[in-house]
Amino acid sequence: MELVVRDTAADPQRAVAAVDELAGLGVVALAGEYHSVVGREVAARADALGLPFLCSSAVLDGLTEQPTEWVARVAPAQSHGWRIYADFLLGAGHRRIAVAVEPSVYWAAGVGILRDYLAPRGGTVVEFDMRALAPTAVCDELVEKGATALLLLVGNPEPAVSIVKAVRRDRRLAEVMIGAPAGQPEFAEWVTLLGGDGAGIPFLRYLPERLGPLGVRVEAALRERLGEAPSFVAFEGYDTVAVLADVLRSDGVDRARIAESWPHVAVEGTRGLIRFSRTPGINVWQWAWPPVQVADRDPAAPGRFRILR
């Protein structure tokens, strides 16, 4: 099996061009994509071309507009993880929640999921439009609105890092929880840029409480190769390739046969047995579900993670 790599650079147009190029080169399947907005474009183009696409990390519920047989996904749908996160917020006593948000289909979907889950349970969501507010102005808005939690629905490292620094330095906000459901604190760069200020910020990660034997072996191999502990995204990538390798071994390299195999997959991944099914509201073949944690970095040792839920 030959792996042909193209960098989408988080650019939807560049991603579509990469799909066209790879299809023209005769690839039998596509794998990957971290960014949800870009993943949606990859999925749409793969569907149009009749090219199997196994999505590793993009979580947007609406990965395709219409049901498709060509696309399957290892990552959980955004609505699944973000409802778990919303429930965590309620359990921690937060009822008035602010979101610092930038324009994006992904962030808008996240706000909608949070609002729909929290509103019937007595919670409210207040939006701060980061096109109009500087990080220091966010602090004043938090005080004025009386929010007890601020969620970062913004790009990383900026403006996320600047917002965290501003809130941490404002004594009026000492009791305000900062959260990052999209997972920004998972990555080592977060600690490099923020140090201790980046700890104690709950986020979603898609790992079990304890890895099984395969997960332990893969974690050790990735740690040696990367020179640091792998993120949950690395496990998503490994599981994606493991599924594709199994499909190619059993069903060959015909594109249509690969797509037809999605509902018959049963592959032991690093985080559990991977099977794809039709899930209400999701138009692709979906692993329902990978394990989901709410975690943060330990304030006593920011290089260490704590599982909060």
TrEMBL record:
<keyword id="KW-0732">Signal</keyword>
<feature type="domain" description="Leucine-binding protein">
    <location>
        <begin position="2"/>
        <end position="279"/>
    </location>
</feature>
<dbReference type="InterPro" id="IPR028081">
    <property type="entry name" value="Leu-bd"/>
</dbReference>
<protein>
    <submittedName>
        <fullName>ABC-type branched-subunit amino acid transport system substrate-binding protein</fullName>
    </submittedName>
</protein>
<dbReference type="InterPro" id="IPR028082">
    <property type="entry name" value="Peripla_BP_I"/>
</dbReference>
<dbReference type="Pfam" id="PF13458">
    <property type="entry name" value="Peripla_BP_6"/>
</dbReference>
<comment type="similarity">
    <text>Belongs to the leucine-binding protein family.</text>
</comment>
<dbReference type="InterPro" id="IPR051010">
    <property type="entry name" value="BCAA_transport"/>
</dbReference>
